[in-house]
Every structure is written in structure tokens, then in C-alpha cells.
Amino acid sequence: MERDFDVIVVGGGGAGLCAAIEAQGAGASVMVLEADKHVGGATLQSGGVFYAAGTSVQKARGIQDTADAMYEYVMNLNQWEFSPAILRLLCDHGPEAIDWLIGHGAEFPPEWLMCSGVDSVPRGHPSRGGAGSVGETIVRAFEARGIETAVATRVESLIVEDGRVVGVRAAGAELRAGAVVVTTGGFGNSREMLERYWPSMAYHGDRVYAVHWHAPFILGDGLRMGEEVGANIVGFDTGLPLPASGAAGRVVEPFLPPWIVLVNREGRRFMDETVTYSVSGYIINSQTDRRAFAIFDEPTLATASVDTAYSDPYHSELAATTWDHQTIRNRIEKGEVFVADSIDALARKLGVDPISLGVTVENYNADCDRGIDGEFLKQAERRFAVRKAPFYAIEVRASVIGWTSCGPEIDSQCRVLDKHQRRIPGLFAAGEVVGAVQGKRYAGGGLSIANAVILGRLAGQNAARAAAQ
Ligand SMILES: Cc1cc2nc3c(=O)[nH]c(=O)nc-3n(C[C@H](O)[C@H](O)[C@H](O)COP(=O)(O)OP(=O)(O)OC[C@H]3O[C@@H](n4cnc5c(N)ncnc54)[C@H](O)[C@@H]3O)c2cc1C
Fold first, then answer.
1. Is 33 in the pocket of ligand 1 (CB under 6 A)?
2. What is the DSSP string of 106-135?
3. For atom 45 of ligand 1, which residue has the closest CA?
4. Tell me, what CATH number does 451's domain have?
5. How far, in Å, from the CA of 451 to the mean position of ligand 1?
6. End position of a domain, from candidates 354, 376, 400
7. What are the coiled-coil residue ranges (predicted)?
8. Are residues 377 and 450 in the same domain?
9. Is 12 a pocket residue for ligand 1 (Cβ < 6 Å)?
């Protein structure tokens, strides 16, 4: 078969650039096709946290951890509804991927390690340099290799001959290769894709947006192209929903402030308000009408909301301070915050059960006085009683997309599978485009970049091998 390149990579984000680096390192001639005007994708916007266990960074801080322990945690969190083979890759290759990034200039300060999921071992590795720093490291490593790249080149479809993917169509041309790696990222910026593949997120209507908005081609092209050539699409209606206060504009605000009392339509609390975003969005979405209300009073607004340190535990400098004092005052002026002189009146404005809300607030206040949270065990210093009018409420929904996880099914060599579990020859995929990489719950902040780097590198190695055969 005539070919222009051994390996074509569709999408020059984190997974794509890692795939290209590895494929070239394995001796393949490589072409990267990127729809945007520059490479980097959502990876270049990301918070730069990497989730991994048993790493050199953990060891430097004296933390005992293993890939097996991570595997057990993620499997149990997902009630074993997670591909064991894929999870094994994410666990086993984490330490090596962290060292690879460090080798290319990334820095993961051991003192910044944190529990970014609901596990008890710090596996979230924030990177120095804040937002985009891991992406910048990958882009630098890629650019140093002089790999052929065409930007502003959106791939339209895959070319299939005799059941084998042999190339791509883009910009009116055909390019042929021994293997194609699809790394087009998620589909959070496509309303149509959301309605089809993540309807419970589309439910939130106009409030929905993806944190990927700066990466305009996160539109699900890879999912569509995979489907066109018969790929099995898995992970329907899953992803990472993040809490949102409905503040005007698109903002990243995954951490709720500790000083609110979050209640559902029944007027009841339903979680520790400080629980990590890896689970909070799912809990909010399982409440009646998939919504909740943050309740607080005037003294809390005046004092507690001034401290916004809770909003950026990753040192990412990404998180918006939508719950800070001035923003809320401005929103009150614009009529975007529910305000009432009594809890009963507030409940009626919200359409929340007034008796229950009254009991919730009474119990919460009594717990604040006693220095405990009898129901949800929130830390004492993070609780503020709700006593003095005016009383306020802001509607909270889990309507922001952190990542999408519906897409083509792959095997442990990143080969795309069809509906009969057969490999589609010549086709590989990695990164956010791949389906069912996260299970029902997000293991912890950093798993998406881990997925892009680890599966991207493996896909590149395997594609180069396949192209050489
Ligand atoms: C603001 C923000 C913060 C985040 N923070 C974190 C974090 O701290 N930790 C973490 O783990 N995850 C985080 N994530 C998620 C994580 O960054 C992504 O899941 C991950 O980087 C996706 O990598 P990828 O390579 O699969 O896709 P991307 O990096 O998005 O790359 C996909 C590329 O494909 C291109 N493309 C799409 N369609 C085509 C086509 N038809 N032809 C050619 N090119 C195409 C796109 O333009 C894009 O460049 C964050 C995301 C955002 C946006």
C-alpha cells in the first residue's frame, strides 16, 4: 500500500502530541493534523494536575503508595464498572509518565501533593506554573522533535479500504498511512453531541458549557469518525459534571465555598459542602430536578466570603472567584441572588419545602454552636450559622463539563474495537475521545491528563509497531 506517512495523528492536543513523540521515537514517519491554529488543545488550558500512584514525587515526600492500591480504589469507587485492562494501564504507567514529564521540564512539587479524589493517599500531582504548565511541557517536547504538523487542518473522515483504516481526508486532500491515531479530545463544545451522548448533562440547557471553551474544536469529531467506520461507542451518558453557581460568563469554579449550606428541593442538606468536585457534581445531579441551593446569611457574606483560598487547592490559578464577596454583592444588585427576610420566605421563593428548610437551618445552627456537624461531618472551622437576615440563596447546578467520556472503545493496546469486539485494523485512539475511561465516578483531579499522556504515548508506540508490520 502506498503511504504518505507511517503514522497520522488526528488532533494535536496532549494525547496526540505524546503519541506523535513516541511514534517518531519508534522510527515511524509521523504527521500531526490539528484543526486549531496551534497545537495543545484543551491540555494547554488545563489545570496541570496529574493523578498517579507510586511516583518518585510521592516517594520524595515519604508517601507509601502503589499502582495496586490506586487500582483497588478506582475499581471500588466505580463498583467494578470500569475496564480492568485500561485502568491497569493508567495505574501501572503513572509513575513512568510523571518521570517522563519531569524529564521534559515539568515540576511537581512534593509539598503540593494532595488527595484530589475521595481517597486517603495524596495522588493529585499539581504542577508548578499553574494552568497549562503540563500542556506547555508536552508542546515543548513535541516541537523539539521537528515532527511534521499541519495546523488549521480539520480532518473530515477516515479512509477505509478492505476493512482497514488507511488514511484521512482533510482540506480536500487524502493522506495515507500505515496507522491512524485519533486524539481529537472530547465533545463538550457540541450541543448536538451532548444531546446524543450525554443527555443528562444536556438537561441543564443554557447553563451547560465545557471548561474546554478555549479549545474550539472539542466537538466530538473523533467519536463521529469512529462511529462512521463501525467503532463500538461506549460510556453513554457519563462524564465529569462540575458544580456551577450560574455566575454570568464561562468560569471554572469546581470547588464550592465551605461556608454555604447546600440544600435540595426538599429543603435538606445532602452532602458535606466541601467534598471534592470529583464527586460533588454527581451528588448534586442526583437530587430532585438536578439542582440545589446554597444558603447563607448576611454576616457570613460579610466575613466568610472574603476568604477565597479554598477555590484553588491545585495552585492552578484557573479557578474563578465567583463566590467572593464583591461578586455576590454585584449579583444581589442585579437580582441574580434570592434574598428574603426569613428562612420561611426564602424557602417559598426557592420553591423549597419551608418546614424542612427551617429544620435544616435550626439543626445546622445548633451543630455550629456545639462545634460538630452531626449529619455530614463537615470540618468545624468551615461552618457558619445562618441566623441574621437578610438571608440569601444561589441556585447551584452541576452543569459544567469537566470532561466527556463517551467515545470509541479501545483495547489495552489502544486499538479501536468494533461492535463485535474485533479490532478495526489501522485505527488507534487515546485521550478524552476514548469511551468509558473513567467509569461512573471521576477517580480524582488529574485522571484526564493522566489518560491523555499515558494512553497517548502507548497509542503512538503501538501505532508505529503496527505501521511497521
Ligand atoms: C480549563 C481546564 C482545566 C482542566 N484541568 C485538568 C487538570 O488539572 N487535570 C486533568 O487531569 N484534567 C484537566 N482537564 C481535562 C484535560 O485537560 C483533558 O481531558 C485532556 O487534556 C484532554 O487531552 P486530549 O489530548 O485527549 O485532548 P485535547 O488536548 O483537547 O486535544 C484534542 C485536539 O484535537 C483537535 N481536533 C479536534 N477535532 C479535530 C479534527 N477533526 N481534526 C484535527 N484536529 C482536531 C483539537 O483542536 C485539539 O487540539 C482540564 C481541562 C480544561 C479545559
1. yes
2. ----GGG-B--BSSSS--EE--TT-TTHHH
3. 11
4. 3.50.50.60
5. 11
6. 400
7. none
8. no
9. yes
292 Cβ neighbours under 8 A, 6+ residues apart: 262, 263, 264, 270, 284, 395, 396, 397
With both helix axes pointing from N to C terminus, report the angle between 94-103 and 447-468 in degrees, rounded to the nearest 10. 90
User: Do 148 and 30 touch, CB atoms closer than 8 A?
Assistant: yes
- On whether both 411 and 382 belong to a single domain, the answer is no
pLDDT score for 380: 66
Are the C-beta atoms of residues 64 and 71 closer than 8 Å to each other? no
Cell triple for 105: 521540564
Count of CB atoms situated within 10 Å of the CB of 355: 10
For 128, the grid coordinates are 508548578
pLDDT of 1: 66
For residue 346, what is the domain's CATH number?
A: 3.90.700.10
Taking the CA of residue 44 as reference, the ligand 1 atom at the shortest distance is: 29
445 lines ligand 1 (CB under 6 A): yes
| Residue 246 and residue 170 in one domain | no
Judge contact between 61 and 240, C-beta under 8 A. Answer: no
Same domain for 370 and 253: yes
CA-nearest residue, atom 19 of ligand 1: 448
Assess whether 220 and 257 both reside in one domain: no
- For residues 227 and 150, state if they share a domain: yes
- Pocket probe for ligand 1: among 187, 217, 312, 442, the residue whose CB has the most ligand atoms within 8 Å is 217
Q: 265 or 441: which carries more pLDDT confidence?
A: 265
On whether both 295 and 224 belong to a single domain, the answer is no
Tens digits of residue pLDDT in 164-210:
999 999 999 999 999 999 999 999 999 999 999 999 999 999 999 99
Domain termination site, one of 368, 383, 400: 400
Same domain, 44 and 191: yes
How many alpha carbons lie under 13 Å from residue 182 in its C-beta half-sphere? 37
Q: Measure 281 CA to ligand 1 centroid, in angstroms.
A: 20
Backbone angles phi, psi at 417, to 5 degrees: -105, 150
Residue nearest to atom 11 of ligand 1 (CA): 446
Ligand 1 neighbour 32 (Cβ under 6 A): no
Q: Probe ligand 1: pick from 449, 454, 457, max atoms within 8 Å of CB?
A: 449
Q: Does the bond joining 408 to the residue before it have cis omega, within 30 degrees of 0?
A: no
Name the residue range of residue 348's domain: 241-400
What separation in Å is there between the alpha carbon of 45 and the centre of ligand 1?
A: 8
Q: Is the CB of 41 under 6 A from ligand 1?
A: yes
By the 10 Å C-beta count (0-12 exposed, 13-18 middle, 19+ buried), 2 is classed as exposed
Task: Report how many domains make up the chain.
Answer: 2
Q: Is 460 in the pocket of ligand 1 (CB under 6 A)?
A: no
What's the pLDDT tens digit per position in 393-417? Answer: 999 999 999 999 999 999 999 999 9
